[in-house]
Amino acid sequence: MLTGWRYRVVSVVGAASLTALAVYFANHPLPQWLFTTYVPLFDRLDAHVLEGTSLSRAVWTAVLAVLASLVPLYKPRPRRILDVVALTQKLVLVAGLALATFGYFEWSHRLPRATLVMVVGLLLVALPAWFVWIRRRPPAESGRTIIVGDDPTLIERIAQEVSLSVLGYVCPTSALPRTRRRAVVDDDTAATDARADGGNVLPELAHLGGFSRLDDVLVEQHVDTVVLAFMRPDRAEFFGAIDACHEHGVEVKVHRDYADSVLTAESSVGTLVDVDVEPWDMQDYMLKRAFDVVFAAMGLLVLSPLLLLVAIAIKLDSDGPVLYEQERTAVFGETFSVYKFRSMVQDAEAETGAVVSEEDAGGVDPRVTRVGKVLRRTHIDEIPQLWAILVGQMSVVGPRPERPELDSDIQSGVVDWQKRWFIKPGLTGLAQVNQATGHEPDEKIRYDIEYVRRQSLGYDAKIVVRQLWLVLEDIVEYLR
Question: Are 398 and 389 a contacting pair, CB within 8 Å?
């Protein structure tokens, strides 16, 4: 299978070529006559053959519409053949609808109805076949699996339990037993040490290098499947390995007994389960992103007078900046800066460090200012986060982003906590509308995972409406 930029170039050029050929074929007089004569519903139409500038415009319009619709397929993501076929046909239908809509408003660029139907019909067959063909692997490269992890004992156990033929493993040299570390440098000396030690961990598997060599290993070994074996997942290494696999179109799996750190496909069966890195398809993602942009832009615009008043009140109430900045964990375990209206005294955490506010547990936090109490009760302190939504760092709905310091502490004590890293954090979420706070991490992760499984644009809308209602109730209660 082609990987990286080669796959992208070939997929785009092939899709454009097939689309242009489909338009030229459908525009030929003979197909036009046969289609408008013998195909029911279209036999009442006249054959319409485009020529010259009209034909060129039609070809370029069709190519651009199809290429834009097929964007999700230009990355070499691992997908089953039936999934590739279904997704490609879905995107072709989207392109056909776009062409029909555009032709309705821009008559000079339209494809005649018979031509449009024939083009879509041809592409429903040709494009899925094309994407399946360029994703194929030669027989010699099929079933090539490696294990990537940070613990040799876990790697050995997984290698013994899976039915796949494992080529080797990728693991930091520093994590290997002494005999294996020496084996990397001197096989003969290491063999002597192994006999002296009474054995050796992973005696039959080749050590292919550390995490820094993963990209090279995937290409050099023509790997099609990676099995994760992380006992103590570091965010950077863990998601770096997953990102490298998806960049090269390599399928990622995890042993069912060690699936607490990842999102897995619900349809997976057997010892190994598929890692589900992209729970949204492109159309749903685009709709969600459009909703985020509109919501954030309208919120900042409508609330701009209030923002000015709040800024003045904060400056008059206490010394310090109007806004304060915090690092929060983002999708795939990365971090980003989030801004909120300052509701505490300046340098509130200078002595305590990062801690969960006692207000989350219903107590009183002495660090909160007089204006800060109002901002927190009415949720006005969260409004600046609309900017993070607008620029794409957050979403309106998703798991609330935690601070890295607190995130690491919770991660070590709560099963499934790392699964939150697989989706973009949100301004609100299912946990928030159910009043689950940072003092209840087990309850919070239960709601977060439930949201991951049920997420959709309609579900997001319900959560937003419910959150707005709760905010309104809090404001009314405070005014009383």
Answer: no
Tokens of 91: 């995107």
Beta-bridged to residue 169, according to DSSP, are: 147, 207
Q: Which of 137, 42, 43, 121 is nearest to 81 (CA)?
A: 137
With 0-12 / 13-18 / 19 or more C-beta atoms within 10 angstroms meaning exposed / middle / buried, residue 149 is buried
d(CA 66, CA 80): 22
Amino acid (one-letter) located at 459: Y
Q: Tell which residue, 374, 398, 376, has the closest CA to residue 388.
A: 398
pLDDT of residue 420: 63
190 near 183, Cβ under 8 Å? Answer: yes
Cα dihedral sign, 311-298-425-71: negative
pTM for the whole structure? 0.57
Give the pLDDT of residue 438.
63
Give the integer Cα–Cα distance in Å for 65 and 397.
30
Q: List the one residue out of 377, 395, 375, 390 whose CA is nearest residue 307.
A: 375
Question: 25-35 pLDDT, tens per residue?
Answer: 999 999 999 98
- pLDDT grade for 177, boundaries at 50, 70 and 90: low
Q: Is the backbone of residue 14 left (phi > 0), alpha (psi -120 to 50) or beta?
A: alpha
Q: What's CA 255's distance to the chain center, in Å?
A: 21
Percentage above 90 pLDDT, the chain: 23
113 residue type, one letter: R
Strands (E), 85-213: 145-149, 166-170, 206-207
